[in-house]
Amino acid sequence: MAAMAGVYGPLMHLKMGFVHVIVAASASVAEQFLKVHDTNFSSRPPNSGAKYLAYNYHDLVFAPYGPRWRMLRKICAVHLFSSKALDDFRHVRQEEVAILAHALASSGKMTPVNLAQLLNVCTTNAIARVMLGRRVVGDGSGGGDAKAEEFKSMVVELMVLAGVFNIGDFIPPLEGLDIQGVVKNMKKLHKRFDTFLNKILEEHKITGSRGTEGHVDLLSALIELKDVDHGEEGRLTDTEIKALLLNLFAAGTDTSSSTVEWAIAELLRHPKIMARAQEELDLIVGKDRLVTEADLAQLTFLPAIIKETFRLHPSTPLSLPRMADENCEINGYFIPKGSTLLVNVWAIARDPNVWIDPLEFRPERFLPGGEKPNVDVRGNDFEVIPFGAGRRICAGLNLGLRMVQLMTATLIHAFDFELPNGLSAQKLDMEEAYGLTLQRSVPLVVHPRPRLGPHVLKF
Known about the structure:
alpha+beta, 48% helix, monooxygenase activity, metal-binding, metal ion binding
């Protein structure tokens, strides 16, 4: 689609089966859809992923825009993603990242480690402790295990299936035939997730949980909210609770861990940038402790590295689809009601009309004196929108930013990384795998060499 936009322009109409698909592939066009006409494009088109994986549109990500969606969004905003909620559980994220650092220091001495899996264990447990009051994978050592590998594979499979071009979504008369076998696979995966979530929900109803240090975890809060009548929004159901948990596990674990994996891969290929980042961390944090979230506000170069990683490797390269509720006009073109909108986040962030040397990894472009010193990733600057923008911007944006920054800062502060078998960093495979999220085609395997003493990393 990015290549087509280079030929036909940044606003394209594609006819996919029975569906009108509109593709926005420049910052200015994306702004028209996601800011100027945001209200008209706040719903999702029908799709098999939402129907068979996300509890038939009962989740936050795919729910139709309206009272029920607003209720779910408000619950997340208050109980999980508010500044107070994020600060209350700051210690959880720091503890899980410290466990990750300990695991890397302990396991990477002799044999190379699969960084992707350890990052996924870290993000999954950090989110699980906030949501459920306990870990769901690993034993707290930070090491990989079979359960963690299975859970990651389920999340990756979900992202792959959700990103498949399913013919039945675009030619409805063929939906029942399931020509590609996509729906069959979705139903099987949904059953696995539902079993996992049912077990968690039933255990929680019996035992309850106040998480750590007396903070009520999200699931306990959700169970209590079932008794509250939200007026026109109605009451929260078990199905919506499970759908919400599925969203948070799927959207909050793999996206964060894969972004950090891309960041480390880029820094391995750019040792001067790595050295500059380590120098800043040594100056601000020192070498006698690990990075904390309080340190992040004092850093200037690290946030630029994170922005540049989000630019080159956006976790959702093609935005989740939106649908036109009414006819409208964009840039002089008629957009019919019911059209599906896709925003090509990947293409926008590599637009040569906006970025100097767009394929180069250059964090300094976001620093004072650089080409885009004031551009942020929070949905206001459309040149780089890894979390989307407008009403349906990623609800977990602030949590995702904190988690990605803390993990990346800790890894590059605490370790130097070498590739196994003498592999040159310039020959590192940077191919992308296909799916709803931007995975590395080949997981990053490294030898971590501690930069901090044993008393800090406890190895």
